[in-house]
Amino acid sequence: MKDLSVSIAQMAPTLLDVSRNLEKIRLFMKEAVSSGSQLLVLPEMALTGYGIEGVLADGHSRAAFAAETGHAVRELRADSGRLGLDIVVSYPIFSKNRVFIAAEYIGRGKRLAVHRKVNLCNYAHYTEHLHFTAGDRLTVVRTEQAACGLLVCEDFWHAANGIVETLYGAEILVVPSAPCVRDQSHGPISIARWELLSRSAAFLQTSYVVLVSRAGQEGDNTFLGGSHVVSPEGEFICRLPLFEEGMAQVNLQAASLREVRRQRPLLENERVDLYKKFFAEVASEMQAPVRDRK
What we know:
The protein has about 290 residues and is α/β, with parallel strands linked by helices. It has helices spanning about 20-35, 60-85, 160-165, 185-205, 255-265, 270-285, and strands spanning about 5-10, 40, 85-95, 100-105, 110-115, 140, 145-150, 170-175, 180, 210-215, 215-220, 220-225, 230, 235-240, 245-250. It has a single domain (about 5-290), classed as Nitrilase/N-carbamoyl-D-aminoacid amidohydrolase, CATH 3.60.110. About 30% of the residues lie in helices and about 25% in strands. A hairpin with a 2-residue loop joins strand 3 (about 85-95) and strand 4 (about 100-105). Helix 1 (about 20-35) runs parallel beside helix 2. The protein is globular and about 55 Å long. The model has no long low-confidence stretch (mean pLDDT about 95).
């Protein structure tokens, strides 16, 4: 890893208004470049808004929306190349009869990696499993500056995802997210849980965590905000406020990461051989009919 300057944009996208969201992202990109950042990270579904299920049932509306989204992503790639700025942007991918929640790493105008959300949220007031298809692969993108593991929101709640990505070489876990509450009074409890996850993952995986949550309102959902960046020592480098749009710029130090991993070589000491055997047994057990399980 080399030293890396990162901007995080706690954006409040407008539901289904791709052109408006594209212009807002462009403003964030210009601000990131002016602050000297090399990478801009945006929240989950920044390009379209979160609750897009209303356009999925009608074939004509879905096709038009898919085309508009695809065009906007191509525009962002072109902007990334022109500005010399890497970005991580999240949007839906339409593939025949399936729709995925994705996060794309665009490196200086090129699509370097696309992560399809592997863990769909199917509890509390979330119903992603009814509208989207889960991805089936974890993603690590390697650039000249760093190796970034991409996770989207609920993916981060499943510790094995971050473990696998850091074992694949990730030095930074980049997490676009869109947690929401129905009552703003629940915000402090919710963000405390997210911050616990981020500090634990950063400390135990000896990695930076860059978690960018969206703000704004969609129907009954108030999006949490509270984006933050955590060091490999589990300490906050940056925290944005709840519920409000905002932007911040941080510098991630390569020397700090190397020193932490030298002093605490947890990744080197992981028993991958043991995990491989154990997870194969667990998968076999879970796939067996209920009556055959031990």
